[in-house]
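[Automated response] Your request has been received and processed.

Submitted sequence:
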Amino acid sequence: MKVPWTPFNLGVFLVVFGGLMFASLARISNYDPIQSFTLTIMIFGVWLALAAFILTPPDKYAPHRTLVFGWGAMLAALGVLLFVGVTQGPALPIVFTILIIIAGIGALGYSLIRAGENDRRPKPPSTGTSNL
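Generated structure:
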């Protein structure tokens, strides 16, 4: 399904933000409005990371799936850091180091995938001459 990225993602953000703020202000949840906002950033980041692979880009000029996934992962990590910073301040360094490890594993996986793609590309035929 080809949907316009910007209004669709804005709608997801507003629904999540409005729902969490309503739950916070109506005392349905135990989170205050600041915690609800940090949860919104985290949930929206997870949404972007998933949407990068679920939704098809609307046109050929749309950003690449890897770029959208990367931005979603960064937003989710920022949301986690903000949420832990607001709720459990002393645990922030531990969460930060865990996120660094996860990012490192992701970078290793991405580089190994790219290396595998480079191995499958056809090599140009050799002319037999040297360019010394």
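Summary generated for your ticket: The CA atoms of residues 47 and 117 lie 27 Å apart. The chain has one domain: 5-119.
If you did not submit this request, please reply to this message.
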